[in-house]
Queue: 3 jobs
Job 1
Amino acid sequence: MMDIEKRIEELLSQMTLEEKIGQLTQRIFKGAEIEQMKEFARKGQAGSYLLGSTAFGSDVYQERPLIGLMDELQEAALESRLGIPLIYGRDVIHGHRTVFPIPLALASSFNPDMIKKSYRMTAEEASDDGIHWTFAPMLDVSRDPRWGRCIEGPGEDPYLGSIVAKSIVTGFQGDNEEEYKQRQHLAACAKHYIGYGASEGGRDYHRAEISDYSLRNYYLPAFKAAVDSGVATVMSSFNEVSGEAVTASEYLLKDLLKTELGFDGFVVTDWGAVWQLILQGRATDRKDAARLALNGGSDMDMEDNCYWDYLAELALEGKVPIENIDEAVRRILRIKLRFGIWEKALSERIDYDSELHYDQSKKMAEECMVLLKNEDNILPLKKDAKIALIGPMVNARRSLLGSWTLDCEPDKVSTIKEAILSQYPEVTVYTTNEESYDNMISMIYECDTVVLALGESYLMTGEGKSLAYIDVPKEQEELVKKAYALGKPMIATMTFGRPIGMQSIEPYLKGIIYTWHSGSMTAPALADILFGKVNPSGKLAMTLPRVTGQIPLYYNPPRASRRCNGYYGDPNPINYQDVSGRPMYPFGYGLSYTTFEYSNLTVENKEISLDKINNGDKFAISVEVTNTGDVDGMETVQLYIHDKIASMTRPIRELKGFKKVMIKKGESARVTFNLGYSELGFYGRDSKYNVELGEFDIYVGGNCYADLGDIIIVK
Ligand code: BGC
């Protein structure tokens, strides 16, 4: 540790102003401009190269990282006066060659160990391509499925978001400084700090109106968890929060992130975000933007070269204190040293087992998919079933991978049809490549169950891909109704990237599996769930509304003054005259092919003094969960609290613990949770975190409607 700080100061003392600004500059890697790039590198005029040619990395052709050229460029950097290597960054979001489920789906697995393992593998694959640094995890808690980028985040809950943050950061980076340095690990980037997920109306890049209270209690925790897990970098977000353009916000970047949370890595701006301060009405021109961003606490300038063009001038004019530049350089060098970029500057092949990674991707997909409905136990289907397989996703391949998959291998993806036919040869599948009504009728005549493969293209999700309507698309609604008229029982597989309002089709379906865009192995995982080889265990990380007009709809608002206008968990909240106040399916919800019964909730020490809580004492709460069905299964046991009377209004339910356990049929497991200082407090009016005196309701169960409860008291 000390060695790193000493080395930073040694380097800093030898650097010219130009070399310092070089470190703060991230340029775009363009194979065609290699000679020019080498020139920059040789003169120490670049700190990083971004391997990607557009901000819409998810769906526009991207140049593959070309290791040969990357090494040539790196050699030029190593030949520079001080030999400081470039750090290569790329958007490695949910897999690299092997694609894992979209992060919103990953969160729905409620399985932190599996998530971590998946990101370990992702880091190996990306390191094999010479990448040092990824722009992930995206930790924007969001309550708005209209926002196309909700697919990239952990869903709507700050606690789940924090657990996911830790898994992904340690998955990418390793668990300690020794591991950070190893070649197969990547430096991570918690993004987009902060409030991007709250953009009004789900409009991308739009303003977010967030009080300090909500910012700290809902939007900050996942970033805090990332910082506490040692995340190397943080990306400032494009948006503004209550008048603060984040990229230039001293309060958000310096006071809150760096000072209060103790973040000692570097902040990189988002693509072009420095010059965009002009568009946001904060800066008069690019020079002014560079001044505001650097002084605000943005350390590295992604892509737009405002720092490169103007920081020297600004420093000479005294408008940017040299101490601010030095501080930014320190942070960048610290991460380069901490992550051993000198040692892993040039690429080296990593011998990883691709088959193992695909296998993990399948297991991950299985754990993410959510069984929402299973009337009359229509699922799993029999292995000699006759199914009519209909709908827009039957032959989809690329879309199963989801957005933000720059290096994916679409050729290795099987379609839902292919997976069923190859894994279940005894099943009769009536299907056709030709979507016609006549075809559909004749197929349905023959079959005993209709499987509707519904979904959306990955091009409807991701950056800049918001939707005004998130109800099931009209043509799919019609398809469901026409098929229903023919009288056969129907199930739907919902391959969407975001929560979709399915009120219009839900009554027609006996079974529903929400598959998400679950990566390379979406179809094989789904086939095994459909036919019962795998028992589904996913739980929703984001509320599924009934219709668009209910948004935002989330499980953890404060209690309202009048019950009928309140929490979506009330038996019959009358928020609207034209639609129920309840969601279609609530947060934390998901069925299994077996059933679980909760009993014997016990609380050790129902009362603990505040003093003791502040000193680390905890309430121990445990519950017995019994698998009462006919098959083994996994259940995510969830613990919610409600701070009954407090100095600020508190959420009616807050997730504060979960454990995913495998329970064999007929057996029981006792699951224990501990609640203490970190779980019971909140940031109050004075922006300070405190636990308050009083009673807390606690609830344990299999989703946010959990009703087995008790009371604990902090006295
Ligand atoms: C996105 C970031 C991404 C960056 C680099 C931006 O448009 O908002 O999430 O990391 O581009 O590709």
Job 2
Amino acid sequence: MSKIKVAINGYGTIGKRVADAVTVQDDMEIIGIAKTKPNYEAFVAQKKGYDVYTPADKIDAMNKAGIPAAGTIEDMIAKADVVVDCTPGGVGEKNKVLYEKAGVKAIWQGGEEHELAGCSFNAESNYAEALGRDFVRVVSCNTTGLCRVIYPLDQEYGVKKVRVTLMRRAADPNDVKNGPINAIVPNPIKLPSHHGPDVKTVIPHINITSTAVKLPTTLMHLHTLNIELEKECTAADVKALFAKQPRIRLIGQGIGSTAEIMELGKDIGRPRGDMWENCIWEDSITMYEGELYFFQAIHQESDVIPENVDAIRAMMELETDGAKSIAKTNKAMGF
Ligand code: NAD
């Protein structure tokens, strides 16, 4: 069977990682990536063998910079079965008209609103909902991290209520424009934050509320969760449940911070030092007066990457069983 043709529109933090994750799968391939600027990322993309497309008015600039443009973004879209839109939040929605005109399927990221695609996706929680769909939104890094723990807990014990505080990284490591660099910022001040409600775009019946602060760090987000469950269970039961999940890593072994988790990612040879799984401190998993508490760290640059691969597989109906797609994606990426 021929491989599914995937195009990446927007080759930044998320786009370049999705391109590499698609490349290692045996049922899909990258037919091009779109870059608006001939910067170092475009040079690297070309060196890796990706065809680089660009807006019509940037073709000369790209050629002059020594990166031969393969064509316009519209040319790239015309060759694809599915476009993964990884442009900055709010930009992606403007591209919908391009995808509709070309009759091509499209995936957006968490920076866009649920309504744009009408289907918000997390492989563990609602793979079947994306089967055969034309448009899907892979939810944000934080929402992905929350769905990965809430869904299995709900299946096993029933979730009565979730309260979560998100301690968010202020910027990605390559971002020199955002902050704070020396403050803690309640963000937003008006509560709840959008993160809890966003979980409901994937698992609508969950009762969840969230607060969020921005911290002067670039490495990861950290969540403090407090969950009321319908059925009684012990901390050991929850540890055993999490240990079985394909995209959860229980951490201990002296790891006491997000910095050490990122070092672990490098030590185990992950591309770019990425950590695709939720990292839950095993010793933090506690039952107190019938309520569950734990800490988890989320690598914002990479946890959504395998989810994009699964979304492609579901939309193209390459695999109807979500668990099988997750296993296939994980194996090819080298989890
Ligand atoms: P980014 O800024 O790192 O990359 C975006 C890329 O798109 C850049 O290369 C930019 O030059 C390019 N671009 C801008 N306008 C374009 C256009 N009109 N056409 C084609 N390319 C264009 O952004 P990112 O962090 O990769 O975020 C992309 C999406 O993923 C957003 O929706 C964001 O909310 C979501 N997301 C980001 C993170 C994260 O932590 N970085 C995590 C999960 C989801």
Job 3
Amino acid sequence: MIQSLIAILDLGSTENAAIARAVRAQGVYSEIFAHDTAPEALKAVPGLCGIIINGGENRVVDGVSIDVDPGVYRLGVPVINVDHTSPDHAADLPAWPEDPSGVIDSFLDKCSAQRNWNMDNFIADQVELLKRQIGSRKVLLALSGGVDSSVVAALIIKAVGDQLTCVHVNHGLLRKGEPEQVVKVFREQMGANLVYVDAVDRFLDKLAGVSDPEQKRKIIGAEFIRVFEEEARKLDGIELLGQGTIYPDIIESGTKTAKMVKSHHNVGGLPEDLKFELVEPLKMLFKDEVRACGKALGLPDDMVYRQPFPGPGLGVRCLGAITRERLEIVRESDAILREEFRLAGLQGKVWQYFTVVPDFTSTGVRNHARSMEYPVIIRAVNTVDAMTATVEPVHWDLLMKITDRIVNEVPGCNRVLYDMSPKPFATIEWE
Ligand code: XMP
């Protein structure tokens, strides 16, 4: 089915993604295009029914003010002329109002756009596209259990079933219950072809005695690639690699007017001779749409609404040189924190919350005797883009309850602290 599409021409606005998302929120699919996209190329876009020229403060590139090809006004679809810069800016485009939804609503009417962009349509389209791309070939996917890779797996399974092989590497730094959940949901419930790799000892042995945070990250990343590569080489005839690339990854990889925020992530680092064609069914979705897609595909809520979790996992929350004893304290205390936040209705409301365990002990008393045990630090923050963050004002009673549970239920821990530091000057993670 061809869906209506609104093209957003990027004329230097930093709000392109927000406008694209706002159009989709009204049920019409939208995509961002470079300002100099040729009118003929736009005309060839299936479903094109309107164009938003989106100006902003980055309109001047290398001292020259950029503009769209005047041919876009002659394509026979409605064009709206809008700018994001402040009113005193000498813009030749009218300004967006603070809430753009009204302007977008009337524009969509003017374009006679069909408001039928929804997850059921998206899934049906993607299943067809995946079947066409994959044919009878085989696909490999690194399934971490995170939102993006889980949704990619569920979509590809729906399209081509056991032509997909998922590899789940348990590096020992996952949260309590996560590897088990991946096996349960994908192997048992979805019938996926899942290779489960227990690499716990291998990772922890490599990390033993390493206290520098960057070194720890590098070891975890490099070892992950090595394990994944070994598994890939064991499998015959795989030509395609599934990836959880999402639309912000593409947008943040840099446009003609915006500086690159980060390079497009991929399973970089795989050896040259392991060449795969990529399968990226989520590359046009925003994060909340990925979650909606996962939910529509039947993935459990705690997988779909998972809080962000760093690639190096609990490894950057077990401060300094990782030991198995302290790793268990991080894992168990994190599980208690997550359970109590869920029971208190904070799951999905607080952006990120976790525990951290430093590599020193303090004096305590247990069984009427002096004992040296580790402290646990609770961190709970809110943010929009992870560049800055504020501290969640967790209710005192809840903190007391969590403290009571941690010191009673987690062996080796005698103190609980709450981290009050916003970002900046602290980062969200401790390492
Ligand atoms: P910071 O600590 O830099 O974290 O304020 C910002 C966000 O990024 C996450 N984070 C990572 N994610 N690999 C990742 O995939 C990493 O090495 C990493 N380090 C931090 C962090 O959890 C927070 O959401």
